Amino acid sequence: MYKNILIYADNAEDALNAVKSVTNETPCPSIEMITFLYIFPVSHQLEEIIQEGIKLEEKLYANSSFVEEACRYLDKLEIKHQKLVRIGNPSQEIALITQSDRYDLLITAKAESKETLKSIAQKARCPVLILNKK
What are the residue boundaries of the UspA domain, all occurrences included (predicted)? Predict the structure, then answer.
């Protein structure tokens, strides 16, 4: 079954829904680690960061704090978890991460364009589950 799971989301509701989805489908004892992935779209906000003088690292971790509720949920189930923060293009970063690290499943709960989702699914080196927005 799925032991190492990568969850790509950008808000608390989607991260929690992804966690609940995977823990309901997979027996919890078989899950070894869930990694929350936040990709900072630097091309969209780089100018703003430079103008405001905001330190990039502070902005990255401030933006990725949304996973805390999902982490508390996993703590109750005694499932290990971690947070991975990257900068760049989502499909390229996911391709690199799934190529170099061993993930059994990627869950994307982020509202992306159909083209981006297709690119992520094609480049990921593991099965991909796309959670639809309700």
Answer: 1-131
* pLDDT tier for residue 16 given thresholds of 50, 70 and 90: confident
Helix (H) or strand (E) holding 33: strand 33-40
The β-bridge partners of 128 are: 106
- For residue 39, list its beta bridge partners: 86
- The torsion region of residue 88 among left (phi > 0), alpha (psi -120 to 50) and beta comes to left
**For position 62, which CATH number holds?**
3.40.50.620
Q: How many domains does the chain have?
A: 1
pLDDT at 58 exceeding the cut of 80: no
Instruction: State how far the Cα of 128 lies from the Cα of 132, in Å rounded to an integer.
Output: 13
Distance CA 6, CA 88 (A): 17
Range of the domain at 37: 4-130
